[in-house]
């Protein structure tokens, strides 16, 4: 899709080819962009969540690695509502009635005690856990719900790391979206009654 590619390049998107050897090039480009003063947005899970309830899952270490290498702050951001416009792994957007999308950013993740440690797997895993915990806390506030006890790990459920998840996960995610739509419709009806 040449037009989409041109738009994304013009916006400064750094392409990541997860299955190829270009991931290291994308990481180097991200470091260079941060050092040049750019703001980088990263989905720390590396893909759409596989969690049946649409909660954040176990993250990948790339965002934490970037923050620890560059010294840049790592600001957690959560969103709730895009799933009402386009169901996860869906192909048809639901534009009507208009949907509300909520986005909230929290304070930078507290990684100060990790910045002087060796950049090894335990340090990266801990930094990633903190960031994902911060994102999940923000999402709890947006959803008005309590997170699952443990973040979803696709490997523990025999799911692939990338691509479309299994039918059981997609079915559970659809049920989560439908339940959220019902709660939103009920809230709208209650607000409308209060105005009359």
Automatic annotation (TrEMBL):
Pfam family, one: Acyltransferase
SMART domains: PlsC
Keyword line: Acyltransferase, Transferase
CDD domains documented for this protein: LPLAT_AGPAT-like
Domain Phospholipid/glycerol acyltransferase: 1-82
Source organism, top-level taxon: Bacteria
Feature: compositional bias, Basic and acidic residues: 142-162
Region (Disordered): 141-175
Name assigned to this protein: Phospholipid/glycerol acyltransferase domain-containing protein
Source organism per UniProt: Angustibacter aerolatus
